[in-house]
């Protein structure tokens, strides 16, 4: 299937770093959509709607391009209808991590690949689970001060020092925890004729 270019519908630095792993020529365009829930009660539903909306917003502007959209929603196992967002401040990050202490946190990461002119749409949802250690307040404060995970859902960076906060991790693709499931993306790209590696 022919397409003119690859576009990542995101302004996320982390997603851009993940895309860079693939060694592809692509560009980023921020979809600039409202990411507020619209009545969704399940993380999967919200993540999927947002991933599709991000890709669709950009694909309509560039109908010949292959557009990639992704979104992630986190929640505690015992509170699946209470979504965990980005803290945006140190105080909120500390508060989130205190709530995570000893808890199991789940992530639903959705992927949408679209080519508007071919009416091609492929969606995927990936799940990942983190079991947090029992965390002391002082180690939480040290972590937040050092890594500044203010723009990360759940207030940690698993690709960095955040790994020290975990007791265990469970899932098929660790990159889904970082916000862009590369295994599923690579499978779709290969189906569309993109050579990887």
UniProtKB/TrEMBL annotation:
GO terms for cellular component: cytoplasm. The active site is at residue 71. SUPFAM superfamilies: ITPase-like. It is an enzyme of class 3 (hydrolase). It catalyses: a ribonucleoside 5'-triphosphate + H2O = a ribonucleoside 5'-phosphate + diphosphate + H(+); a 2'-deoxyribonucleoside 5'-triphosphate + H2O = a 2'-deoxyribonucleoside 5'-phosphate + diphosphate + H(+). It comes from the Bacteria. CDD domains: Maf. One of its GO terms (biological process) is nucleotide metabolic process. It is found in: Cytoplasm. Its cofactor is a divalent metal cation. Nucleoside triphosphate pyrophosphatase. May have a dual role in cell division arrest and in preventing the incorporation of modified nucleotides into cellular nucleic acids. This is Nucleoside triphosphate pyrophosphatase.
């Amino acid at each position: 299937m022919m397409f003119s270019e690859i576009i990542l519908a995101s302004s996320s630095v982390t997603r851009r770093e993940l895309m860079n792993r693939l060694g592809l020529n692509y560009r980023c365009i921020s979809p600039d959509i409202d990411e507020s829930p619209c009545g969704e009660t399940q993380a999967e539903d919200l993540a999927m709607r947002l991933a599709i909306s991000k890709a669709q917003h950009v694909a309509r502007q560039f109908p010949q391009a292959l557009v990639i959209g992704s979104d992630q929603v986190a929640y505690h196992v015992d509170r699946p209808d209470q979504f965990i967002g980005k803290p945006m401040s140190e105080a909120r990050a500390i508060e989130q991590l205190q709530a995570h202490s000893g808890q199991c946190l789940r992530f639903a990461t959705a992927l949408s690949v679209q080519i508007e002119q071919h009416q091609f749409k492929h969606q995927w949802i990936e799940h990942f689970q983190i079991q947090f250690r029992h965390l002391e307040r002082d180690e939480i404060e040290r972590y937040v001060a050092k890594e500044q995970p203010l723009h990360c859902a759940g207030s940690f960076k698993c690709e960095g020092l955040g790994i020290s906060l975990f007791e265990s991790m469970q899932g098929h693709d660790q990159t889904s925890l970082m916000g862009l499931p590369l295994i599923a993306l690579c499978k779709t790209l290969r189906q569309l004729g993109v050579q990887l590696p």
